């Protein structure tokens, strides 16, 4: 899952960076580094460092953090676009060039893990390694050459961890929430049912999570992401017609899931919001906000309307490839992928036309960290102050 949350460095005051990490992240397009603090500085917490490494189809991302009074505090992070899944949809194999790029990035991750004396880490690989014929052989090579042992996540576990990672951004006053992650090689969709919450929970302090987890009403993993869709339809020169072809292709993949569960009818007359955790939605948010440089503190947790999303989508569609490259929230490494992501987002919005979408600059890695810390009994969500910014909880 994880696929396309990539690009320019975040301005999160809780992240302590070394100069090497800063250069790496500046070279890539925003790496969506998130902390449980959501923008407030906190005194350094003592305790073990935990790690989460997500090797996706498009990106290699690492997050290191210590438990804190309000979840965890990020101590180091890394992201690099490696396009591991480049060409896999056609050849069925990871290419030699892609594997070399990935091993170079993983060496940086291994160095950071060692330097920060990580006590416990979980390193995972997703769609590219799931479907490539030589995916398992590649991971064995990584273990031998880099010393990192990566597990291939199944799609259900990936979806569950993504929900855990962005759960704090759910508006628990709603009846249903669709959480989605537009990745590089696959896209996960998870419908959450919050209708069983008591009236006291609904009307109480919304800054606190309910005692019981939301019920997963249905989930699916679509065999399409920004890399695979761009390779299928082209990503450099996208016309309105080819964009519509991409949208219809994705709708065809989404339709069986909707037909099976009937979420459109189920949510009719109910309160619903979407929660997107991917580089596509964070990019759209950054462009909508007019950012001259990606700023996680403004993007993570912000709300977008259907009209605002479409305005950005068709603004990008009207631009040339070179103009998309020049967009600060896109850059050269993602200019050929961004419209494929917008097409997947458009297909989701057409299938389930919710009035609002919340943007999450967090997901799989944060879910892994929360899970590891919970297993060790050191993860505490605590009581968070209400955010005073307009439109946010």
Topology at a glance:
Blueprint: H1 19-27, E1 49-55, E2 59-68, E3 71-81, H2 88-91, H3 96-115, E4 118-125, H4 127-131, H5 135-145, E5 151-152, H6 155-166, E6 176-182, E7 187-193, H7 199-203, E8 215-222, H8 226-233, H9 240-261, H10 263-266, E9 272-276, H11 279-288, H12 296-299, E10 303-305, H13 306-317, H14 321-326, H15 338-351, E11 356-359, H16 364-375
Parallel strand pairs: 1-4, 4-5, 6-9, 9-11
Antiparallel strand pairs: 1-2, 2-3, 6-7, 7-8, 10-11
Helix pairs in contact: 6-16, 8-15, 9-15, 11-13, 11-15, 13-15
What does this structure look like?
With 393 residues, the protein is α/β, with parallel strands linked by helices. The protein is 40% helix and 18% strand. The longest helix is centred in the middle third of the chain and has 22 residues.
Structural class: alpha/beta
Number of strands: 11
Average pLDDT rating: 85
Reading the helices and strands in chain order gives: HEEEHHEHHEHEEHEHHHEHHEHHHEH
Radius of gyration: 19 Å
| Lateral arrangement of strands in the main beta sheet | 8-7-6-9-11-10
Distance between the termini: 26 Å
Helix fraction, binned, reads 40-55%
Beta-strand percentage range = 15-25%
Low-confidence segments, given as residue ranges, are 1-44, 383-393
Biggest pleated-sheet summary: 6 strands, mixed
Helices, by number, come to 16
Shape: globular
